[in-house]
Design goal:
Layout lengths: L1 H20 L1 H6 L5 H38 L2 H6 L4 H33 L5 H20 L3 H18 L3 H7 L2 H23 L8
Helix pairs in contact: 1-3, 1-5, 3-5, 3-9, 5-6, 5-7, 5-9, 6-7, 7-8
Organism: Photobacterium aphoticum
Keywords: Membrane, Transmembrane, Transmembrane helix
Protein name: Putative ABC iron siderophore transporter
């Protein structure tokens, strides 16, 4: 859950902060393309943060095992399943969950990067757009079924986090849907790079 909170704090502000603080011109003076800059920002939140979180988890689990091996009897450690193999399994499950979450968050991250360059309030804008889309779907169909299906797209990261098997939850979403979301994310990534690279940057609403 902390990963999602950091995601929601970092992604909507990272490009907006460049313009507000005037650091955008500094980065433009460096031999770094907009594609590489935005890719680095995505890699930070979608790859580096999960890796750091998993390393902290592994370290804390190891400390628990070390203290337990010093102070607890072997039968109690066995009943509580405190062992190095269990630590490795726990770490593998955790990093696997974060990996699936990062895949599910990629389109949302790229979308927020686009919206953050068009308005000062990207999260509010996205939330308002979602509400309007769901209302429109209800008006068109007369029921909330399509709206519920639409909710599964942006709710996938939370579903992955809360599920017992992150991989199965992600794959159960469907190859076509997952592929479409990833392709959509790539398209939004390109749009975000294009917006950042324009000479006449779009002014915030």
């Amino acid at each position: 859950m902390l990963y999602l909170i950091l995601f929601m704090i970092y992604v909507p502000k990272t490009l907006r902060k460049e313009k507000e603080e005037g650091t955008l011109m500094f980065w433009r003076s460096m031999p770094v393309s907009d594609y590489l800059t935005i890719a680095a920002k995505l890699a930070f939140i979608l790859v580096l943060v999960p890796v750091i979180a998993s390393a902290l988890l592994a370290f804390s689990d190891f400390i628990v095992w070390l203290m337990a091996s010093m102070w607890l009897p072997a039968d109690m450690m066995q009943s509580w399943q405190i062992s190095l193999p269990n630590i490795l399994v726990h770490w593998g499950q955790f990093i696997g969950t974060l990996a699936m979450m990062s895949l599910a968050l990629f389109p949302l991250a790229c979308g927020l990067l686009v919206v953050s360059q068009l308005t000062r309030y990207p999260l509010l804008t996205v939330m308002f757009a979602i509400i309007l889309i769901k209302i429109a779907l209800f008006q068109i169909t007369g029921n909330g079924e399509l709206g519920s299906q639409f909710s599964t797209f942006y709710g996938l990261p939370v579903d992955v986090l809360m599920s017992e098997s992150a991989l199965n939850t992600y794959l159960d979403f469907g190859w076509f849907a997952n592929g479409g979301m990833l392709l959509g994310g790539v398209g939004l990534f390109w749009v975000s790079c294009w917006l950042r690279g324009r000479d006449d940057a779009t002014k915030a609403v």
